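Reopening this ticket.

The earlier resolution said the output was attached, but the attachment link was broken on my side. Pasting everything inline this time so it's all in one place.
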Amino acid sequence: MPEISVIIPTYNYAQYIIETLESVINQTFKDLEIIVVDDGSTDDTKKVLEPYIQAKTIKYIYQNNQGLAAARNTGIKNSQGRSITFLDSDDLFTNDKLLTLRAALKNSPDMAMAYGNHLLWTGQKIYKKPRFSNGRAPSGWILPQLFLKPLMSVPTVLVERKCFEKVGLFNETLSTGEDWEMWQRIAAEFQIMYVDKITAYVRVHPKSMSTNFIKMGENKLKIKQSIYFRYQSKLLANLSQRDIDRSFSEIYIDLSKHQILQGSKQVARKYLKCAYGLDKKSFIRNSWLLLATYMQTLTKILYRIKMSLLNFLTVSDKNLNEKK
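Inline output:
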C-alpha cells in the first residue's frame, strides 16, 4: 500500500499534462501512486500519456465527461494511499511538496489535513507574491475562517484518507467551488494545519481564466448556505451572526455587480435588496450599484423629458409666431 495517492483529473490539457506529471514523478518523496483520471478528453491526452501507461508509472482511468468533482471522486475510489492529494493537470508541485506536508502531518498527530502556500505562474514567469504573503494562515479548528473565505488552493493540500471516510466525497452537483465545500466539511470534523512553504505553482492561462463569474457566485452562495445550516452551532461558537450575515451580503453584492455587467438590472436589484437586508453597512459602501441598475431607465426618462421640452418649446415658438 503506497503512503500517498496523487490524483490528477484532466480534460483536454494534453499540452500541459506531461509537465504536470513530471512534477510528481520528480518528487523527493517516492512512496506514492499516481492516478490520472481522464474526464472524457477529445484531444491527444491519452496519446501523450501512453509511454507512462505502458511503463506503469501511472494508473490511467478514462471516463465519460462528468466534471471535475466526479473525476476527483473516481480517483479517490481507485486509490490506496493512506493520504491523498490532488493536482490539476495544468499545475505543478514543488519537488518537496509531498515530503514537506507528509512530515508535517506525521509530526502533528492531531491534524488530519495540511496545506501549504502557492505561487501563480504563466509557464514562463513566476509571480513572486505568494498566496499568503505574510507567511501566516490559520491552523487548527479553522471552519470559521474557511466559511468566511476560501483559504487553500487544491494542489497545496494533503488529506488523510480518514477525512473522506468520515465526510464523504466531493459534491458532484457543483461545477465550481467543490473543493472549498469539501475543505469546510473536513474542517468541521478534523483539525487542519498550515505549513509555511511554497508547495505548488498554479498556472494562469486563458482557459483557466475563462470563468462564468455569475455561476461561481451562485455556487458560492449555495455552498455557504449549505455549510451554515449544517454546521450552524459550530460556526456561531466562533463567529457572530453579524460576521456571518456580512459574508452573505458580500456574495450578494458581488453577484449584483456581475448581473449589472450582463445587463440583468432587475436581478441585480434583487441581490442588492438581499444584501441590504443582511448588512446595511456593506450595502451603503456599494450603494452606487443601485444607481447603476437604474441608469438606463434614468437615461430614458431624461431623454423623454428633453424631447417633451423641445416639443413644448417648438409649439410655443410656433404659437408666438402665429400671433405676430
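Reporter confirms the inline version is readable. Residues 240-295 form one domain. Residues 288-323 form the longest helix (36 residues).
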